[in-house]
Amino acid sequence: MEIPVYLFSGFMDSGKSSLIKETLIDGDFGEGGKTLLILCEDGEVEFEEEELAKAHACMAVIDKEESLTAKTLKELKLLHQPDQVFVEYNGTWQMSTFLELELPQGWVLVQSLATVDATTFEMYLNNMRAMIMEQIFAADVVIINRCDDHTPKGKFRRSIKMVNRKAQIAYERLDGSIDENDMEELPYDLSQEVIDISDMDYGIWYMDAMEDPRKYEGKKVRFLALSYHPEKMKKGVFVPGRFAMTCCADDITFVGFKCKCDKGQEAPPHKAWVTVTAEMRYEFAMEYKGKGPVLYALELQTAQQPEDELIYFS
Questions:
Q1: Cα separation of 284 and 294, whole Å?
Q2: pLDDT of residue 44
């Protein structure tokens, strides 16, 4: 029999315990059978024995990272015989400790949820980016709670999507309601004949085009890029892009789009700086393993290397 495992991750005081309580105790999730709740840290919200009993749940505590082992989980399975498992993960532990763990026979990780406190997320991004992103990179759903009208939702979304593109992101307001309005005003004008993408806006453009490529169908853009020629790419095809800091100084990646040159038009040399003017199309590309943004070069001009070669997603 398959026993579903739900993993709740997130940095300190991000609302994991509250989400579990809302799901398991206040909701109807406990009606699915006996639930084993494994706590790996003490949250602000405590679980009362009476509440757990009403939800057909029992609780186990693992307070040390080195105690989270396959043997420990197997013992918990034999002791409690759960029908489903909730794990409240410790916000300071490596996610690999759990994700690489051999789960007991029948236990299957079916969903990973991460919580983010909107009131502290920006501070953590600026000071402990690697640690907070550790809790987010593998999540299926990221819930940004305690939002208000001033929450920089676009900035938060870009930061999360850069390390976890598949994640669904939900915004929860202070009263617990879901904020459906996550639209962000772009810093450039899509109605312009040629859209100039500055270094400051490159990250926004890249993420927006990846998330909603149809928006850019037929649009002409101009931007400064480094020319890259990946192996096995055909003649006249290259990738203009930029190196981006996605998480910390040790986590830098190249981000760009496939670009095709017209017949007779030569692609810039490898690792040359170039100002690209191109038309964007949404079409199939082997490199994307599906459809995605593809550039068609209109003009390629040699450019000087900028003072700061990196672009950022903040």
A1: 8
A2: 61
Q: Tokens for 6, please give them.
A: 């739900």
Contact (CB, 8 A) for 245 and 312? yes
Lookup: tokens for 264:
């007779």
Question: CA-to-CA distance for 11 and 43, rounded, in angstroms?
Answer: 11
Q: Are 303 and 273 in contact (CB under 8 A)?
A: yes
Q: Would you give the distance in Å from CA 79 to the centre of its chain?
A: 36
> What CA–CA distance (Å, rounded) separates 313 from 163?
11
Q: Cβ distance 90 to 11 under 8 Å?
A: no
**Between the ranges 22-31, 88-97, 284-293, where is the mean pLDDT highest?**
88-97
Q: Which residue has the tokens 């203009």?
A: 240
Collapsing DSSP to helix, strand or coil, 75 comes out as helix
- 79-121: pLDDT as tens digits: 999 999 999 999 999 999 999 999 999 999 999 999 999 999 9
Structure tokens at 90: 């410790």
Which pTM value belongs to this model?
Answer: 0.69
Where does residue 289 fall: left (phi above 0), alpha (psi -120 to 50 degrees), or beta otherwise? left
Angle at 67 between CA 61 and CA 69, to 5 degrees: 105
Q: How confident is the model over 221-235, as pLDDT tens digits? A: 999 999 999 888 888
